[in-house]
């Protein structure tokens, strides 16, 4: 890589490419955003006039100067495009979910290893400020022995989006593969694989062809994990609810980075990822006979850490922050969740 710069090509400039990837590749000094594949138009040039817009994925694969391909396409294309990229000698960042099936994910992991390329999966919600705050509380054992963890990712979107691939009855469609991927990844990062799972997956919106509401119960020896998401939640409740032997933590609100990125703000600005203090979580614990009830300052969110790690891995041979095997485990949990929902029973993790 010339002068320790990673030349990057992005395929797809919809929500994912425009909001969650290009801003970081533009602002972080280790990357050179070289090409973007847009099927129609040149929207990216309005923001990044230096970028070359191309029409075909092969323009990325065949460019010897491109080191890293970022795949921001519908889930059904992830497997084939990641495979082609790896075989072309490129490192890859792929949006979550890595693939619709765990078998496909395993095949890509083996391929990446065989061609000595890196496969990164964009699990950016590991760097939400609220989740970083939860990690800090758990790392410090402030709640004592944790007994219940509940996390939500709710939205209010009562109307279906015509033509939106997330609402199509195709592999990788629906809310469990979309928002559920984040919640499952966070839970597995904190607690590892559960012993068993029970799932209630529903279609609540009229005419929906895919799931748009779910509740998963993940069972550990001394802990129950509940993760929920729905598209008909007009008045959101807490985002995180944690209970332990010493007390509880409850947190409303959601990390501001997505909204700021959608509003066109660029990472690196002062107070990036800093949450409005009104959304601070509440800690209520009893320790050494004393009661403590107070708000907890939310850690600043920092999606840029994902791409800082990509650079560190490719240039300085550091460890991957998001291992592709972890992304495969997320998909396996989703597969078992659909099995549990279909059979209406608890399924063991094997």
Features:
single chain; 350 residues; alpha/beta; Rossmann fold; Dihydrodipicolinate Reductase, domain 2; 2 domains; 10 helices; 32% helix
Explain what you see:
With 350 residues, the chain is of the alpha/beta class. The protein folds into two domains: 2-122, 3-Layer(aba) Sandwich (Rossmann fold); 126-302 and 333-348, Dihydrodipicolinate Reductase, domain 2 (2-Layer Sandwich). It contains ten helices and 15 strands. It has helices at residues 15-27, 43-47, 58-61, 78-87, 102-114, 129-139, 175-191, 257-262, 304-316, 324-343, and strands at residues 6-11, 31-37, 52-54, 68-71, 91-95, 119-122, 146-152, 196-202, 213-220, 223-230, 240-244, 247-251, 281-287, 290-296, 347-348. The strands form two sheets. The protein has a nine-stranded mixed beta sheet. It has a six-stranded parallel beta sheet with strand order 3-2-1-4-5-6, sandwiched between helices. A hairpin with a 2-residue loop joins strand 11 and strand 12 (247-251). Helix 5 (102-114) runs antiparallel to helix 10 and helix 7 packs across helix 10 (324-343). The longest helix has 20 residues, at 324-343. The protein is globular, with a radius of gyration of 21 Å. 41% of the residues are buried.
Low-confidence stretches: none
Our measurement of the CA-to-CA distance between the termini, rounded to an integer number of angstroms, reads 41 Å
Give the tally of β-strands: 15
Strand order of the largest sheet: 14-13-12-11-7-10-9-8-15
The proportion of residues in beta strands is 15-25%
- Enter the CATH topology name of the largest domain: Dihydrodipicolinate Reductase, domain 2
| CATH architecture field of the largest domain | 2-Layer Sandwich
Strand count, sense and closure of the main sheet? Answer: 9 strands, mixed
Total domain modules: 2
Query: What is the arithmetic mean of pLDDT?
Result: 96
Shape: globular
| Rg computed from alpha carbons, rounded to a whole number of angstroms | 21 Å
- Structural category is alpha/beta
Helix count, DSSP H or I runs of 4 or more residues = 10
* SSE order, one letter for each helix or strand: EHEHEHEHEHEHEHEEEEEHEEHHE
């Amino acid at each position: 890589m010339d002068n320790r710069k990673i030349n990057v090509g992005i395929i797809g400039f919809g929500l994912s490419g425009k909001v969650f990837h290009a801003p970081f590749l533009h602002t972080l000094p280790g990357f050179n955003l070289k090409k973007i594949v847009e099927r129609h138009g040149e929207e990216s040039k309005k923001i990044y006039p230096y970028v070359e817009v191309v029409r075909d994925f092969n323009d990325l694969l065949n460019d010897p100067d491109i080191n890293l391909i970022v795949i921001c396409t519908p889930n059904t294309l992830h497997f084939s495009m990641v495979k082609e990229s790896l075989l072309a000698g490129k490192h890859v960042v792929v949006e979550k979910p890595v693939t619709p099936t765990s078998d496909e994910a395993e095949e890509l992991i083996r391929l990446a290893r065989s061609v000595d390329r890196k496969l990164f999966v964009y699990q950016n919600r590991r760097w939400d400020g609220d989740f970083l705050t939860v990690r800090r509380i758990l790392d410090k054992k402030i709640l004592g022995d944790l007994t219940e963890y509940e996390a939500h990712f709710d939205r209010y979107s009562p109307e279906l989006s015509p033509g939106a691939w997330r609402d199509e009855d195709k592999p990788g469609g629906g809310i469990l593969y979309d928002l559920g991927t984040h919640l499952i990844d966070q839970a597995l990062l904190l607690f590892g694989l559960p012993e068993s799972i029970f799932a209630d997956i529903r279609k609540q919106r009229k005419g929906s062809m895919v799931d748009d509401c779910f509740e998963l119960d993940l069972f550990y020896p001394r802990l129950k994990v509940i993760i929920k998401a729905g598209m008909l939640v007009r008045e959101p409740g807490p985002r995180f609810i944690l209970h332990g032997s010493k007390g509880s933590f409850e947190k409303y609100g959601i990390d501001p980075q997505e909204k700021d990125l959608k509003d066109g703000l660029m990472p690196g600005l002062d107070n990036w990822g800093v949450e409005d203090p009104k959304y601070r979580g509440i800690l209520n614990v009893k320790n050494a006979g004393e009661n403590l009830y107070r708000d907890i300052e939310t850690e600043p969110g920092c999606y840029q850490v994902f791409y800082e790690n990509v650079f560190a891995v490719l240039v300085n041979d550091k460890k991957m922050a998001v291992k592709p095997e972890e992304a495969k485990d997320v998909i396996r949990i989703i597969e078992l969740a659909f099995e549990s929902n279909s059979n209406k029973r608890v399924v063991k993790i094997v």
